[in-house]
Hints:
Number of domains: 2
Strand content: under 5%
Distance between the termini: 61 Å
Number of helices: 3
Number of strands: 0
Structural class: mainly alpha
Amino acid sequence: METARLMLETARAMRTYTTTQVAPLLDQERAKAERSVQNMEQVLDVQMPAALQKALPRLPAAKEQRILQITRQQLANSVHPQQNDETEPQFFPQSIPFYAQIVSVPADVALNHAAAAMKTVLIWLAGVFAGLYLIVNAIVFVFISKLVPAPAPQ
């Protein structure tokens, strides 16, 4: 029973470690990724169009200006649809830092170990009780045989 209890407490401790130590790290990584996406959107939506708009009048030929506008539009169209495709963040095990590990132990494994530990404990208890029974009977036999006098020979 002690082994089974120890195994269950170990599994509980691993789960607690995962939720208290690893989950905040994953949240930090997710927050960094979201900030990076926001920064990239800022660059693509605000800064790059402003820079292109500023550069547009400096181009001497109308053909170059048209090419620049088409390129800007193609770039904006190619970036934004990809960002809208991912509506929910995905979890990739590779994203967990090397110092963190998520451990999952199936319940059957713990139950099988607990049953084997219980069987071992019961066998040991039966052996101890049988040994004590024999020792107590031997001691009682010796004391009774000394207290009761042997029959006198006739």
